[in-house]
Amino acid sequence: MQSKREQALVGLFVLAAAAVLLATVFAISGAFGRSTKTYHAFFPFAGGLESGAQVRYSGGPKVGRVERLRIDPQDPARIEITFTVQSELPVKTDSRVKIMSMSPLGDNHLEVLPGSAKAAPAGDGSVLASENYVDFNALTQQLNEVAPKAQQLLETLNARATELKVTVERVNDLLNVQNRANLSSALANTRGMIEEDRPLVHSTLQHINSVSEKLEPLLVDFRKTSEEANKAIDHIDSLVGENRADIRQAVSELRRTLTNMTDLTAHLNQTLDVNSENIDELLDNFRHVSENLKEFTATIKSRPYTLIRSSTPREHKPGERP
Questions:
Q1: Is the pTM of this model over 0.70?
Q2: What is the per-residue burial (b if ≥16 Cβ within 10 Å, else e) of 68-91?
């Protein structure tokens, strides 16, 4: 009888311990007394996350856990991560999610980055924007890609350093004792020339100033002339604008007159071409008539009596009276 009682007490103690243990586990995991919200994020590389991984807020406290990872059925190149966080967590519509680790050798966890203060709270079941995870292999690949460029950059720097060394040597050679002495003498000569020519330069500047003073009235006159020319142009523009119809009519009449003159000239040329032979014959006749008139005039001048008697008298016979 005593042994059965002891066994019953032991069984009750075991059951009570199991109940306390389960209550403690659920209390630690937040299963009791806290409401949660569920969110989704998509990553091309999940970084080794598994269900039950921690969710932290801005590198701070643990605020939730990863519930599920699955391949996106609409895009097999992405992993969909479903996670839950405390409902009072200020997750905004522009909050971002990324995969991080607290130390180089620590496990990865899901990090929720805060959004802006003016953004609206993200609803339960929303999809948050994500940042790609860069693992050690990706960093190694990037370093391998950068290594040739870095080597080339070092070679370029070495070449530039060599060129700089040569340049410094040339500058040192240029600034040796003899060249410094020559430069000093050249500066001294230049200073002496400036001292000698200072009165001439001063007088030249004075002449320039006087010429500038004389040019000022000319510039004023030029401005007045420009203003008057502008006024004249404005007056002409207004006159043309007022008599635009009359000017257009005058231009049209002038164009018709030029057209008539062109036609008349064409007819005259055609008439001359057709009667060129007759005109030549007429001119020839005029020439003969002119020659005959010239001979007649010369005859009248030399023998005017021919107007009243014959120029060739009849032959006188002996015994006839005149």
A1: no
A2: ebeeeeeeeebbbbebbbbeebeb
